[in-house]
Structures are given as structure tokens and as C-alpha cells.
Design brief:
Oligomer: single chain
Strand content: over 45%
Number of domains: 1
Structural class: mainly beta
Low-confidence stretches: 166-171
Shape: globular
CATH architecture: 7 Propeller
CATH topology: Methylamine Dehydrogenase, Chain H
Mean pLDDT: 84
Distance between the termini: 58 Å
Order of helices and strands: EEEEEEEEEEEEH
């Protein structure tokens, strides 16, 4: 007879955002050690926060960035050293957590609702895909403030449509 699974206690996040959390993502495993994970949280208060979560459930705040307007989405870079974010000020940003430098990669005509890193883990220049309420999906390189390519959507953009756009060939 199988034994019942052991209950895992909730993890308490200290210094959590003051408004609704819009996204949560753990960093790729290569970014931490076997005993530590890193959690990124974006929120309606305009913050993007990084927390260190140990195997025993202890959570410590490690870094925080304030975007200035509600931050609707975030994602880790493939190597786990940078956080991408999209916000209600229409900007797509890349935050180097170690140096605390923030680069505005590009801009949409409406709030950015979805963001993804499309680059390989060993890439030092992330390829970014963002989806916005302006009904576009845009592909970015950090080397240019102009999108590499974009797709106009006929219906209101959703996360699923943005994810599906990954499979569209770039012109």
C-alpha cells in the first residue's frame, strides 16, 4: 500500500508586492544551485522582484526593480541572469539582475501583456517576443530599438495567441 504524500508547507514571500501579482516564474535551473531556486514576480504596483527560494522553503528577497506603471508580464532570460518585463507604459524591458541595469528594448502602442525569451541558453543577446493589447506580436533584439519583425493579430491578443506566434516563420 502506497503511503500518502508528505504535505509541503506554503512558502511565505517576504516584502511581497503591494498590489496584485501579475506573473510568477522560476528561473531556469542553471541559474541557481541544486539547493536554491530564483523566483521572479511582476505586479500591478509596477514592481519586478526576484526572490531566492531554498529547498527547505525559506524565501529571501534578492532584488527589486520599479517600472513606473503596472507590470503585466515577466519572464527569465534563457540563462537565468536577466528578467524581461512588459508593462502598461507600453515598454518591453530587459533587467540585468546582477548589475541592476534596465534596458528599454522597445515599445508597443498599448500595454504589453505577454513576453517570452526565444534565445538559446548560451546566447548573450536575448531574442524577445512580446504581445500587446495593440493587437501585435513583435520580435526584438537588444541590438536595436526597432522590432526585427511583427505580426498583426485580427482579434484581441491573448497569451495563447502570443505563444502560437512562436511557430510563425519570421519574414
Amino acid at each position: 500500500m502506497a503511503s500518502a504524500p508528505t504535505a509541503v508547507p506554503d512558502i511565505i514571500i517576504p516584502n511581497s508586492p503591494s498590489d496584485t501579482v501579475s506573473s510568477l516564474h522560476f528561473a531556469p535551473r542553471s541559474a541557481g544551485s541544486a539547493d536554491v531556486d530564483y523566483l521572479c514576480a511582476s505586479a500591478w504596483d509596477g514592481s519586478v522582484s526576484v526572490y531566492e527560494v531554498s529547498a527547505n522553503g525559506v524565501c529571501l528577497p534578492r532584488a527589486k526593480s520599479t517600472q513606473g506603471s503596472p507590470t503585466l508580464c515577466s519572464a527569465w532570460s534563457a540563462d537565468g541572469t536577466q528578467v524581461l518585463s512588459g508593462s502598461c507604459d507600453n515598454n518591453v524591458r530587459l533587467w540585468n539582475v546582477a548589475s541592476n541595469q534596465i534596458l528599454t528594448v522597445g515599445q508597443h502602442a498599448a500595454p504589453v501583456r505577454a513576453i517570452f525569451d526565444l534565445s538559446a541558453a548560451d546566447s548573450h543577446a536575448p531574442a524577445i517576443m512580446s504581445g500587446s493589447w495593440d493587437k501585435t506580436v513583435k520580435y526584438w533584439s537588444v541590438r536595436s530599438s526597432r522590432p526585427l519583425s511583427f505580426i498583426s493579430l485580427t482579434d484581441c491578443e491573448t497569451r495563447q495567441e502570443a505563444r502560437s506566434a512562436i511557430f510563425f516563420p519570421l519574414p
